[in-house]
Amino acid sequence: MENKTVIITGASGGFGKSFTKAFLLAGYQVVATIRDETKKPILLEGLSTKEKGNLTFSLLDVANKESVNNFGSFVQGLERVDVLINNAGFAVAGFAEELSMEEYQFQLETNLLGVMRVTNHVLPKMRKKGNGRIINISSISGLIGFPGLSPYVSSKYALEGYSESLRLEVKKLGIDVVLVEPGSFQTNIWSSGTHMSSKAGNSNSPYLELYTGMNNRLQKDREKYGEPVEVANLVLKIADMKKTPTLRYTVGKGVRLSLLTKRLLPWRVWEKIVLSQLSNKD
Description:
- It contains 10 helices and 9 strands.
- The protein is an alpha/beta fold.
- It has one domain (about 5-205, about 225-255): NAD(P)-binding Rossmann-like Domain (Rossmann fold).
- Helix 4 packs parallel to helix 5 and helix 5 runs parallel beside helix 6 (about 150-170).
- The longest helix is centred in the middle third of the chain and has 29 residues, at about 100-130.
């Protein structure tokens, strides 16, 4: 265990900090990627001397090809990579008609293409070793569409398809690909991790009523969000499994019920439920 190495992208925000702490406590050598060196103290806070010694930082912007290529050179210098956690991501919010194609591309560069770029630099290292585990952090939004989040939802749906295909490609090489699909948790994905369309919420927007209802629902449900450590514990459990993990793991309050309900109900009934929950009549 002491020699196992995990790479965690987006380590300073969202789930990343919880992942970093969990793997350090479990004795892993952790490579934490961050976009900004000023974020280092966030991850170093509260760590023991030994844990700090097992932590390596690497600058990485998964949406920047040059940055990823530099990271690729760094990866080649590592003795081994046992686990890759593709966690870096953010959300573009807004209504499809009011969003530009540049905003959709901005979303996909990080949440989808960024995952692909990083994975392609790590795969040769795992393939040469004959084993490895790639854990892609998806979302319930990769299984259920939500209004006002079509860029984010699209990126996660695409990540699901990419991961499923990649798993079938590398399975015989001793490499496992896994999707973790959290519901709503106390992370910065819906605050500093969100890019909101400049047109969202404008008084002349045809989607103002829906926007207001969504905002009210978000504020109402915020206190019910789970703690990131719950997801971190699941990811660590998957990384440590001696048997081959399955493809998908959902986590979070109400996630399984929501997925089951969507699967069993006629679409007409499902969309009525979703839209009624976002109604601004409460």
